[in-house]
Design brief:
three-stranded antiparallel sheet, 14% strand, 38% helix, seven-stranded mixed sheet
Length: 398
């Protein structure tokens, strides 16, 4: 529910999660009386340093890492940049290629594109119709000239889980560094750096009921990595600058909550997601599901409504917060790029809507969302809209 206006059914948890009350409570002292600089050698500073290290231990425990392997950042985008560009900056000249997937988030594709302009070769591995990485193609892309493999753990639009562990095992046999963007996976499914076999793993606080503007990068001991920023020696020299103590404390609190509630949350949310799909597909004939039936996040449902723009569906239901992957520029719509990579026809991709559930989602929310979406679709079909009609609806955030 928002603080202004009528109640809103919030089904956009992949874009951002609400701040958990327990997280806000944990952060509060560090927004007030506990304002010390963690680098200061007095009582206030030492308490701030202790709070940062306790949060580091909590984040490390969530992913099965050692505390000293966790570097705090400003969020998932910075973590991805540090991992990708930091590896590239120290790679030997014989390793001039990077392997990635065709459906990465812009926080990964943008730094990769930057490297490509400076001479790096990118191998973009396709996905199957399910949206899951083509394992055979990924394994075939490996070689001794590859400096880095970077493949997200969970796709932010479809919810598809990628075979990161299998790819990492093969890549590391070539001496290749492996990174995964786990921003969408943390607090939704169990994540273990040991089981995945990765060297680098990115986390974003606001995807796991923590605050915005804070994240973390797991850096396996011995992984060669150069910092993007220079300054003092904070975060092992990999991320200099005075730490965001309140944000870091919030991320630590969110990590502890995830450890306590992950299993029960995942089962309940998956049940609601499946009920949402069953009811929606029954009410709106011809609706297509793009989220895999298996190997997917428990909270994510990406669908395409027949004969309409997904953006127009959402524009008719301001009581529902959800996302669509098609962008609108000067009245022209661009289909969801992830769906195109999966082989979905452009006119079908234009009807896409992403519904992502969370801890606060109830069965009443699901029932209400189905009524709203079905009603909006029916009203649009009745007016026979053009698939190129303009819409003011927003695109899909991460």
């Amino acid at each position: 529910m928002t603080s202004e206006g009528p109640p809103v059914i919030y089904l956009d948890h992949n874009a951002t999660t609400p701040l958990a009350p327990e997280v806000a409570d944990a952060m509060a002292p560090y927004l007030g009386a506990e304002f010390g600089n963690p680098s200061s050698d007095h009582a206030l500073g030492r308490r701030a340093r202790r709070a940062v290290e306790e949060a580091r231990a909590a984040v490390a425990a969530l992913i099965g890492a050692a505390s000293e392997e966790v570097v705090f950042t400003s969020g998932g985008t910075e973590s991805n940049n540090l991992a990708i560009r930091g590896v590239a900056a120290q790679a030997p000249s014989v390793r001039c290629r990077i392997v990635t997937s065709a459906v990465e988030h812009p926080a990964t594709t943008a730094p990769l594109a930057l490297l490509e302009t400076s001479g790096w070769t990118l191998t973009r591995v396709p996905v199957a119709e399910s949206g899951i990485l083509d394992v055979d193609a990924a394994l075939a892309a490996l070689g001794d000239d590859v400096a880095l493999v970077t493949v997200m753990l969970a796709q932010n639009e479809t919810g598809a889980l990628m075979p990161v562990a299998a790819l990492a095992a093969a890549a590391r046999a070539h001496g290749t560094v492996v990174h995964t963007d786990a921003a969408q996976a943390i607090a939704k499914i169990p994540v273990s750096v040991a089981d995945l076999g990765v060297d680098l793993l990115s986390i974003a606080g606001h995807k796991c009921y923590g605050p915005k503007g804070v994240g973390a990068l797991y850096v396996r001991r011995g992984t060669p990595l150069l910092p993007l920023l220079v300054g003092a020696g904070q975060e092992g020299g990999l991320r200099p600058g005075t730490e965001n103590v309140a944000g870091i404390v919030g991320l630590g609190a969110a990590a502890r909550l995830a450890m306590d509630h992950l299993e029960t949350d995942a089962a309940r949310i998956a049940q609601l997601r499946d009920e949402l799909w069953s009811a929606l597909s029954a009410r709106v004939g011809g609706t297509l599901r793009h989220t895999p039936d298996d190997a997917c996040l428990p909270n994510t449902l990406l669908v395409s409504f027949p004969g309409v723009l997904g953006a127009d569906v959402l524009a008719r239901v301001p009581q529902l917060a959800a996302s669509t992957g098609s962008a609108c520029h000067a009245g022209e719509h661009t289909p969801n790029a992830t769906l195109l990579a999966m082989g979905v026809a452009p006119e079908v991709a234009l009807g896409a809507v992403r519904l992502s559930l969370g801890r606060g989602t109830t069965r009443v929310d699901v029932e209400g969302a189905v009524e709203l979406l079905a009603g909006a679709h029916g009203a649009l079909v009745a007016t026979m809209p053009s698939l190129t009609s303009p819409s003011t609806s927003k695109g899909m955030p991460r």
